[in-house]
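Retry 2 of 3 after timeout on previous attempt. Resubmitting structure tokens to design endpoint.
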């Protein structure tokens, strides 16, 4: 797994070929790693907002209570892993349209590998510096999109031209998912859970 992670940053096209060549059982077994990798951003956010705090305008660090941070971290984890699972299943669902070679977990694993930059960048929320976090998140999401476009053709065993259209459809599904999460966040913060700031 570590080798694939490093390879996706050093030579992503070659690494996707290696991942695609793995057996179905090996691909399915790699799913467990993403369950734990997805915890990194949630844990980083929890520590960053409760212990480190963030500074606005040179004032004292702003923190939230542990009690209010726990449900927010759980929801954050659910949103990230929901994205991996939902978009992954949509990859499988669309596979017939693009004559792709797929099974349900294959799309989820593809998205798990593509989300690795997001998992790693999210862990740095342990020290929340707004401008740095925004730049890092933008770079991580950009690289994740690149990984999707590079990974869909070999993983789903489709030609490059069809793979581009397939990856574009995956990207559209991801955008819809982001909008749904943003709306759900606004509703949940208003009616279910919200941050409670410390004095």
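Retry 2 succeeded. Sequence:
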């Amino acid at each position: 797994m570590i080798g694939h992670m490093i390879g996706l940053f050093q030579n992503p096209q070659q690494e996707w070929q290696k991942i695609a060549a793995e057996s179905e059982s090996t691909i399915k077994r790699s799913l467990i790693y993403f369950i734990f990798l997805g915890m990194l951003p949630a844990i980083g956010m929890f520590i960053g907002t409760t212990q480190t705090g963030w500074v606005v305008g040179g004032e004292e660090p702003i923190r939230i209570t542990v009690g209010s941070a726990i449900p927010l971290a759980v929801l954050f984890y659910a949103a990230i892993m929901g994205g991996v699972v939902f978009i992954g299943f949509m990859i499988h669902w669309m596979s017939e349209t693009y004559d792709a070679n797929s099974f349900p977990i294959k799309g989820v694993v593809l998205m798990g590998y593509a989300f690795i930059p997001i998992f790693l960048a999210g862990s740095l929320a342990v020290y929340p510096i707004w401008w740095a976090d925004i730049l890092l998140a933008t770079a991580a999401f950009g690289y994740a999109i690149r990984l999707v476009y590079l990974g869909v053709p070999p993983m789903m065993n489709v030609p490059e031209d069809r793979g581009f259209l397939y990856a574009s459809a995956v990207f559209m599904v991801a955008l819809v998912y982001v909008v749904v999460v943003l709306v759900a966040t606004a509703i949940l913060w208003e009616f279910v859970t919200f941050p409670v700031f410390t004095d």
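Attempt log closed. Residues 160-191 form the longest helix (32 residues).
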